[in-house]
């Protein structure tokens, strides 16, 4: 056993009992290949709190920093970070965003030199105590910029993303043992730990949980709610298109009857003008575009007029869909949903379909038509504030299935 570890764990239990109870659920072990401390997941669902003996015995480390090193890992687990990395495209950027979240809940005395904090990026304003998805998206937007004023911050993030950076080395063990597992087993392991954390919150350490600061409690609660509900997005799209049709009566006889002075023949004429907004702030994978436009093509073939707009923080391109193939949409910078909604209002379309990952500010413009949001598989979570405040119906788009 590493010297002083038991003392540190007892102190955590006394000072922050919620994390003390969480630590009691973990195996503990020494690992020379871990840079300092880390959570190691194995294929059987066991999580080990691993510590490097050389790091732990460094004389320059204070007891408060050792305390913070363990609390750092427990914060990651409390927010289910080891199980969520597959929800995001870039694993290195995910690791940085996860650290930016948890390190804000360590005191200055608990932080070690070099640990990542939002204030280390001086050129952009990162709001404190936000979710992992928020920081991930802000970093993604930063890396997409080209201006000289943000070059220093971009270089800092690139250094953080290097494979030999402690943040990357420490988090590599989250997914190494899970990569070979089938999706069903990964989901089962995550569900098992969600169950244990829910028991901590509602039974074993309920009082200790409510002594945590409110922002932290909210992040932990949100991490334990079911994410990414899967609906049949194709069916949702077809129903949306059907309900967006306008109908008018058309005479089948052009001249009134000489005998009765009426126009006896009428038929129903269906009109439909839809706008399709493609979020280009992050490159849309080809598999999503191909499957999405197969459904769009069916709407066009059925007689719908389709105005396609490509948009990031402003509309970059617009054209009428005539059955052509859309192979690629280039990724760019930040995101704004309002320009597409305002254009749809101006054009007077019957419905607006928005394909996006959902990472962006909550729209302020009010749509004057029905809206359907199709959120990509690695987009915002269904328990996020943005998802819940998007106007219209919101559905997860999962390629290759529902």
Please, could you describe this protein's structure?
- The chain has helices spanning 5-15, 17-23, 53-56, 63-78, 81-84, 91-102, 132-144, 151-161, 166-175, 183-204, 206-209, 214-223, 233-243, 286-301, 338-347, 385-389; strands at 27-30, 37-41, 47-51, 246-251, 266-271, 273-279, 305-311, 315-320, 351-356, 371-376, 393-397.
- The strands form three sheets. The protein has a six-stranded mixed β-sheet, sandwiched between helices.
- It has 402 residues and is of the alpha/beta class.
- It is elongated, with a radius of gyration of 26 Å.
- The protein folds into two domains: 5-223, no CATH class; 233-397, 3-Layer(aba) Sandwich (Rossmann fold).
- Strand 6, helix 14 (286-301) and strand 7 (305-311) form a beta-alpha-beta unit.
- Helix 1 crosses helix 2 and helix 6 (91-102) crosses helix 7.
- It is built from 16 helices and eleven strands.
- Helices cover 41% and strands 16% of the residues.
Describe what is shown at a glance:
The chain is an alpha/beta fold. Helices cover 41% and strands 16% of the residues.
């Amino acid at each position: 056993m590493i010297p002083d570890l038991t003392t540190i764990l007892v102190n955590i239990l006394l000072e922050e009992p919620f994390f003390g109870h969480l630590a009691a659920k973990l195996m503990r072990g020494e690992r020379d290949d871990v840079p300092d401390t880390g959570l190691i997941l194995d294929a059987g669902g066991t999580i080990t709190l691993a510590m490097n003996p050389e790091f732990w015995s460094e004389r320059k480390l204070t007891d408060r920093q050792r305390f913070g090193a363990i609390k750092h890992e427990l914060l990651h687990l409390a927010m289910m970070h080891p199980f969520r990395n597959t929800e995001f495209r870039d694993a290195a950027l995910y690791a940085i965003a996860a650290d930016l979240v948890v390190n804000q809940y360590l005191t200055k005395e608990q932080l070690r030199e070099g640990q990542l904090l939002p204030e280390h990026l001086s050129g952009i304003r990162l709001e404190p105590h936000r979710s992992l998805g928020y920081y991930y998206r802000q970093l993604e937007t930063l890396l997409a910029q080209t201006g000289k004023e943000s070059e220093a911050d971009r270089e800092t993030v690139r250094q953080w993303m290097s494979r030999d950076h402690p943040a990357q080395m420490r988090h590599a063990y989250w997914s190494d043992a899970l990569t070979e597992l089938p999706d069903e087993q990964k989901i089962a392991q995550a569900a098992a730990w969600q169950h244990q954390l829910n028991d901590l919150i509602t039974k074993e350490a309920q009082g200790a949980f409510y002594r945590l600061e409110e922002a932290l409690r909210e992040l932990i609660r949100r991490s334990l709610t079911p994410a990414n509900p899967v609906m049949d997005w194709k069916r949702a799209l077809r129903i949306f298109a059907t309900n967006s049709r306008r109908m008018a009566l058309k005479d089948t006889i052009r001249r009134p009857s000489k005998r009765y002075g009426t126009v006896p023949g009428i038929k129903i004429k269906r009109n439909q003008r839809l706008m399709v907004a493609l979020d280009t702030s992050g490159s849309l994978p080809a598999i999503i575009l191909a499957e999405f436009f197969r459904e769009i093509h069916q709407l066009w073939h059925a007689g719908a007029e389709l105005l396609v707009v490509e948009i990031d923080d402003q509309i970059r391109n617009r054209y009428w869909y005539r059955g052509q193939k859309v192979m690629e949409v280039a990724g760019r910078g930040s995101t704004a949903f309002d320009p597409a909604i305002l254009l749809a209002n101006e054009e007077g379309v019957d419905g607006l379909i928005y394909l996006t990952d959902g990472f962006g500010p909550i729209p302020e413009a009010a749509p004057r038509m029905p809206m359907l949001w199709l959120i990509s598989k690695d987009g915002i979570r269904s328990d996020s504030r943005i998802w819940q405040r998007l106007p219209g119906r919101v559905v997860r788009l999962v390629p290759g299935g529902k």
